[in-house]
Design goal:
heterodimer; A: Arc Repressor Mutant, subunit A; 2 domains; 10 helices; B: mainly alpha
Chain lengths: 200, 183
Amino acid sequence: MGALLAVPASDYSPQMAPLKRPELTDEAEWIARAQRSDSNAFERLYRMHIDRVYGLCLRMTGNVSEAEDCAQEAFIQAWSKLDRFRGDSTFGTWLHRIAVNTVLGRIRKSKREQDRIQLVAEQGARLVTVADTGDLRDLSEAIDRLPEGARHVFVLQAVYGYSHEETGDMLNIAAGTSKAQLHRARRLLAQQLQEQGFES
Amino acid sequence: MNAIDDDKLSKAASELATEISPERDLWPGIEEAINKPKRSRWTPMLAQAAAVVLIVGASSLLTYVAVKYDNPAVVEVAPANLVFERAAFGGEYTFASVYGRAGGDVEARFVREMAKLSPEAREGVELSLSVMRQAIDDISQALEKDPNNAFLQKLLVEAYSNELALKNRVGRVTQRVMARKDI
């Protein structure tokens, strides 16, 4: 821990490789420093979690530009609310909650959802992440085409592994509604994927 | 039954990437935002609230003052001892005295010139004057009942003027006779 505290500011370069799985104690230290308004420490936290936050935003919005805006806004929100993080959950889960709220807030504030659907239809595979290959690309595309409510539940529950209770809490819906949306998502996905000859 | 069952779909979904790197570094935008001087979101709201309180307060104060001082004090625009003259004269106006002072010389000359007139001419002048004086009396009586009647006031002035003009003409008659070259 002492070694991390001694890291000079010059080591926080934008080219710094994302840290995939931070040690819990290290992360706690960065959080504590960030809570004392240390933006360098917060950059470290950003690089630890950006891929997971951006991944969630991209899965939920299905739009690269929108996902970037959401991820940025989520981290800005996180910075302003750092004093409210008490360690009840992991920092990653707390960030996910903020990211989900950000996505939902942006959807409520604009009509971009309709634009997004149109964009998905027009651009198709462009929105599929390079991380997905083969049949997973087809699945990713099919998820992007799901209606908003079903897509959000499927991403949180089936992709990110949150329970129906956690998913319901994040989306401000009942657990039963989450189950119903998941069932609907699976049915729609199965129809789409069957047409595409899904093999997985 | 779907050809693709739930287990197969769930397995595929769990294999989807959950960590995806953005195509560009998002940190510079975040850094810029979090290092901006914090502008209190309450400042505009407080300014609006203060404006509303100011307007309501000023309005209330104005209403209070207006109600409290409902009987406005008379504002003096001239010294208290200033004597005001009437712009027009009515029943209270002693026009005869003014006429008497103004026409004093005319009257004296009239008496002198009347003495120079023939008895027939003097009788004609006296008849005209009696008609005029009767008119003046009638108008004066009417003005006693309606002192501020502008029309009656005008008639009275004209009546006095005519009387003075007649008396002046009497004097001029003898003056003209005396100035004749053909006699």
